[in-house]
Amino acid sequence: NESEAETECYRKAWRLDRSCFATHFSLDDNAHILDRIRTQLLEGHRAERKIRAEMDHLNVYSPGSFFKPHKDTPRSQDSFGTLVIVFPSAHTGGLFTLTHPTLSSARDSDNPEDSDVWTFDSSTVLSSQPTPSFAYLAFHSDVTHSLARVTSGHRLTITYSLHFDHHHPSYTLPASAAYEEELLLAVKSILRDHRIMPNGGVLGFGLRYAYIVQPGKTPLEETFRSLKGSDAVLKRACVEVGLEAELR
C-alpha cells in the first residue's frame, strides 16, 4: 500500500521488535560498553547517575537495504541516546554516517558544510578481526544518522535506547573531558578581566545538544541535571568558579 511504499523510500530493512526474538547477547556480560558510553557521551557530567540500556529491536539489512538521514525520537524525558550492536555477520557496504551541526552553525541547518561528520564502516571493522567479534556505536538522540546500501551479505544489528537511571543515582564519572581544563581557564580569564561587565551582569551560553522540554510540564531543574557532553562540561566549569549557573 501507499504507506509501505513511503516507508521503503525512507528505510528498507527487516525489523523485529523486542517481543519477537531472543538472543544470548547481554550487556550485563559486556559492562565495559556502558562504562565507555558514560565517559564518551556524558563527558564532564558530574551528577552521580547511572545509565541503563533498553533493548528495542533487531534489524536485518540484506543487499539493497538502507535508511535515509533521520534522528531518533526520544522515548521519555530520561532518554538521551541510542546504542547499536553490530554482529559479526559477513557483509559489505552499509556505511553508517552521523552528522551534527557545528558549534558555529545554526541548529536547524541542513547544509553538510555546517556539520561535523563521522562514518563507521562495520563491514571493514568486523572483517579485520582475527576472531568473530561484535562492533558497537552510540550517539545522542539529536544526531542525524543514515545507512548506505548494503551491497552483499547481511548486516545484523540490535538497537538499544539509552536512559539515565533514576533508580540508581550512585555513579560518578571517573574522568573529565580533555578540553575541560582549557574551558575552565577561559571562564576564569573572563572573570578576572574587569573590562568585561565592570558593573556585573549575566553570561549566557547556548546549548549544543537538544533536550525534551514540555512547557509547563518539564522542570528545567531536571533538564539541567541531565545535560549532555560539552553542555555538561560548561555547566561544571561555571559552578567550579563560583557562578550561579541555571537553565533558562
From TrEMBL:
- The lineage's top-level taxon is Eukaryota
User: What is the protein name given in its UniProt record?
Assistant: Uncharacterized protein
This protein's species is Crucibulum laeve
Q: Upper taxonomic classification of the species?
A: Eukaryota, Fungi, Dikarya, Basidiomycota, Agaricomycotina
